[in-house]
Specification:
Length: about 300
């Protein structure tokens, strides 16, 4: 099997091809064909049964925030799982988790029976890196797909951001900007994935720290068809408004009240706080960031 060097690909990919040409030329045709098929499969997503996935026994992380897991689970029910897990094939219908235990746990909570996954075989790190770099060079990738590929290279190929930039011929700031997209709420990531908003819009939204403000800006951008420049102006306005914060710390709520709180947050598309006192009394707090946002909430309340 002989590789032809291509122009326009990352310097890292060329180096990988140089390293493998001599090895590939000495291998039997059947073995080379098998590896070619494997390289192609590494760039695809499979749907596997959750019951067939075994948690990696060498996973250093042992504790997971239950509230955060429940929030991710609720998001998965609404948006689906955007970022697949990565597993290693350990036998027939048997997989070992490589990365994504939090996503796996949340998917179980959401009641999923199958989960999207990248399936790897043993000792295929070099081919994985090659497949990812080739995938990143595709012109039709959206920004979320690029960000996911970058994250996989960091997680699974043990690269630092500087090394990743060298592999894909991009500077570190560009790599960082893509990776930051994965910190946005799933609803916004889905809009980027579906080309409803651009990376420029997403970068503007990232100027807001609070999730409720990000979701509000996201709604305004889509509903009003704002340009990137107008989106940046909107973000500056939101930053100057601020949301009045309560001086007293809210008491923790039970799982039942937390579920109600999350359902209300989904209904109003903004953060909702449920405050419950020991005598059963309490209050529901729904913040808004502008008069338009208040009008939207009042309409949902049939006011």
């Amino acid at each position: 099997m002989t590789y032809q060097k291509k122009t326009g690909l990352g310097r890292g990919l060329s180096a990988l091809l140089d390293d493998t040409e001599a090895v590939q030329s000495s291998k039997p045709a059947a073995e080379s064909a098998s590896e070619s098929k494997l390289t192609t499969s590494l760039g695809t997503i499979s749907h596997i049964k959750i019951s067939e996935v075994e948690v990696n026994p060498f996973q250093p992380r042992t504790e997971f925030d239950e509230t955060a897991l429940q929030e991710l689970s609720d998001s998965i029910k609404l948006q689906g799982l955007i970022q697949p897990i990565t597993v290693r094939r350990a036998g027939a219908n048997h997989y070992q988790l490589i990365s994504g235990e939090r996503r796996l746990r949340a998917s179980k909570l959401a009641g999923l029976s199958e989960i999207p996954a990248y399936v790897r075989t043993a000792n295929d790190q070099q081919m994985l890196e090659m497949a990812l770099i080739e995938n990143i060079q595709r012109e039709n990738l959206n920004s979320i797909e690029v960000a996911l590929s970058f994250q996989r290279m960091l997680d699974e190929c043990n690269l630092k951001q500087e090394e990743l930039g060298e592999r894909v011929s991009k500077n570190r700031s560009t790599v960082t900007n893509y990776l930051r997209l994965l910190k946005l709420p799933p609803a916004i990531q889905a809009s980027i994935r579906d080309n409803q908003i651009s990376m420029g819009h997403a970068k503007a939204i990232l100027g807001l720290e609070e999730v409720d403000k990000q979701l509000y800006a996201h709604r305004e951008i889509i509903s009003k068809g704002l340009s990137v420049r107008k989106a940046e102006e909107l973000v500056r306005e939101i930053q100057n408004i601020g949301i009045k914060k309560t001086e007293t710390k809210a008491q923790p709520v039970s799982f039942e009240f937390k579920k109600i709180q999350d359902d209300l947050a989904s209904k109003f598309a903004t953060k909702v706080t449920l405050k419950v006192q020991g005598n059963g009394k309490g209050a529901i707090e729904i913040p808004f960031v502008s008069e338009d946002d208040l009008s939207r909430i009042l309409e949902l309340l049939d006011w």
